[in-house]
Amino acid sequence: MAAKEQKIITFAWQGKDKSGNLSKGKIDAPDIATAKANLRKQGILPKRVAKDSSFSLLGEKNKPIKPVDIAYFTRQLATMLKSGVPLLQGMEIVGNGTEKVALKRLINQIRQSVSGGSDLGQSLRAHPKFFDDLFCSLVEAGEESGALEQMLDRIATYKEKTESLKAKIKKAMTYPAAVLVVGLIVSAILLVKVVPTFQGIFASFGAELPAFTMFVIGLSEVAQAYWYIALFAIIIGSFVFVRLKRNSQAFADFVDRAVLKVPVIGGILHKGAIARFARTLATTFAAGVPLVEALDSAAGASGNVVYRNAIIQIRNGVSTGQSLQNAVNMTGVFPNMTAQMIAIGEEAGSLDMMLDKVATFYEEEVDNAVDNLSSLIEPLIMAILGVLVGGLVIAMYLPIFQLGNVV
């Protein structure tokens, strides 16, 4: 029966050092008794030891583990092993070097498992939420070949590049949406709070209001009467969308296909999927994973059903004896340049290098596309905000401009 994993807690302490001077600091330990014992080992006489409450639930130390944290752990561990530091000591150093409690706890649990006799790959598989099958398989391949430090370095590079790519794609999709949402919120506030004030003023004019102003007043009356229904519909709609996407594969596939057809954004997603395919295949193939298995990993990491199905089709073709280039061409999804680079790699016996070049090229394409999108979309967003907010302001001031005619 496996030993129960210890929970690591951060304690704040006050005490005296070897010179008798008052000192204070923080220490991580599973309980207060262990914390005091560790302080005494460091030559500190503890006077007060208590759980650290300096960070709120939203503090950095209490934030959940993210993929970028796993990339950091992998990179740091690879650096330690390359420097000749033993695996267990390397994990201890990396764990002590992070401020995030959840990550420190995870590293400690892995270290305890390895010190108990398990391989690193087996220890990582006990935490599938943070280490997927591809990650664990590559680590196991590194352990079997005796080149764990090189494999961890390769995995770290893979994780860093894929997370960077995800961040760029996320920026491309969220930036325009966020600005438009702000514009809609400002417009809603104007309709519900500001327009009614002007409406009361217009009632005393005793003149017919411009058609545009009447239209805006009508919108305001609808917004005042039904704003809570609209808000409720947006919340429920968002909840239903997220639940359907998470629980219905058919709906998730429909969304995947639809977003690829969105102007500009779709092109970025296409390039991102090709970059992930090439990067994953290059990493796994270079690690000595058979091509068919490497394609399975690439399909799982594609991030879009269109490319996942295409890669599965490639895998089926390769498993029946087709060359990788022909199988890629048969899908009709990948651009000709990708197929040509793969063909050169197959002929020269350097497929992993060519795939790495393809991945780098499309990652740079995504980077440039995101930068271009930001510069191109800003004038468009300003125009939309101008129409929304400026139109409301103009509608409210039109009667004032025409007040001279009434007088």
From TrEMBL:
One of its GO terms (biological process) is protein secretion by the type II secretion system. It is found in: Cell inner membrane. This is Type II secretion system F family protein. The chain crosses the membrane at residues 173-194, 225-244, 380-400. It is a multi-pass membrane protein. Keywords: Cell inner membrane, Cell membrane, Membrane, Transmembrane, Transmembrane helix, Transport. It comes from the Bacteria. Pfam families: T2SSF (PF00482). Residues 73-196, 277-399 form the Type II secretion system protein GspF domain. Belongs to the GSP F family. The keyword Membrane applies. One of its GO terms (cellular component) is plasma membrane. Its main location: membrane. Coiled coil: none annotated. The keyword ATP-binding does not apply. It comes from Neptunomonas marina.
